[in-house]
Amino acid sequence: MLLRSYEITRVLPCLADPEKIRVIAEVSGEIHEVFPYLNAILKGCIYNHPAMTLTIKKDQKLITLHAYHITLAKVEDEKEAEELLRWLKNLVNETYERRSEIEPDYSKGADLKALDLYKLLPGTNCKECGEPACLAFAVKLAGQEIEGLKCSPLFSDKYQEKRKVLFELLQATGYAVPNLSLDSGKKE
Ligand code: SF4
Predict the structure, then answer these.
(1) Neighbours of 64 (CB within 10 A)
(2) How far is the CA of 175 from the centre of ligand 1 (A)?
């Protein structure tokens, strides 16, 4: 069994939907070995092999698997988080057990959607990035047409949580992100 147990360690407000929660669960041991097999059997995953992350979309939820933890976004409550984690545990273990029958898929999969990125930007349309609005910036970011995150308001304390999620999403999908301290927002 690859995923023996998990424990919910943080419950936060969901940034995309204030009515919902974002949950972080630590797992009992490394689980990344199963990621290319899950990527092969599930539709619409985003896989970043070098960063060892796999993002799964399930019923409007965004689930990102890391080597040692799992993040769940847009979750109704802790009861739903437990249900999702139980589902994930079975999926991970069953897929791992029959990995010899599955051709692993190391491809990146789906691209990021501009709208998903837009929800994680400040949304003030201040134009400091040189774009006429946040959505225009998000479109260019999704298309990898800009280098670095030239959105200075995003690095203020006010947007610390949005910044963390945005960075997680960008890293999970293999996009280049600047070397920053996610807690302080200051360059290291
Ligand atoms: S600098 Fe940031 S907040 Fe301002 S318009 Fe650009 S993306 Fe939006």
Answers:
(1) 22
(2) 19
Alpha helices in the chain (DSSP H): 35-41, 78-97, 114-118, 134-142, 160-172
165-183 per-position pLDDT tens digit: 888 777 766 666 654 444 4
Report CA(158)–ligand 1 centroid distance (Å): 14
| Residue 116 near residue 17, CB atoms below 8 Å | no
Of 10-19, 98-107, 168-177, the poorest mean pLDDT is in: 168-177
Beta carbons of 169 and 117 less than 8 angstroms apart: yes
Whose CA is closest to atom 2 on ligand 1? 151
Q: Which residues line ligand 1 (CB under 6 A)?
A: 121-122, 124-129, 131, 133-134, 137, 151, 153-154
Separation of 172 CA from ligand 1 center, angstroms?
22
Cβ neighbours around 31 below 10 Å, total = 26
* pTM reported for the whole predicted model: 0.66
